[in-house]
Amino acid sequence: MEIYWLGHGCFRMRGREATVVTDPCPPSTGYKIGKLNADIVTISRNHPESSYREALNPEAKVLTGPGEYEIAGVLISAIDTDRADRLDGHSRNVAYVIDIDDIKVCHLGDISRTPTGDEVEEMAGVDILMVPVGGGRVLDAEKAAEIVSLLEPKIVIPMLYKTDASKGEFEAVDRFVKEMGTEAKSPESRLSVTRSTLPQDTTLV
Fold it and tell me: Which range (150-154, 182-186, 196-200) has the least confidence?
């Protein structure tokens, strides 16, 4: 499977049988994701910054709510994780556990609080964790690192942080790297991973 970060909370995961896109973001976020071809699209929050349907091909199956799904050979568990803030009218957040090419990927969406014990149980055993780290309306670095220690994934991919392109009110990724007790690695244009190449210890990408 190949994983591409397109910006904000948007990733494209290309597996053997299907392509999954998460939280397509509009140009107003600072990222131009272009037109995306996907079999499955997951939207964590009904908010303009994570539900830019104009980028999607019309045949894509779009998931927006909790439940269990099987589409094009991909198993998906969608978990309702209400946000800590309820002020903006978009309080619901859905985290997705996506089983693709025998690898379990968890995309936490716009989560703004530490998951409950039951939610952690539903996310248990994930291999790759996509976690917001930029603070403000999403998790800050400290809470993000706490979730990493709860879930113990093999690979951690931060998202929703300040970059040269982003226009959101986020912190840079450096603080999260420090919280993880590791050093910043050179950014990768894509991550290619198989079951056999997963690292033994938690690795930050």
Answer: 182-186
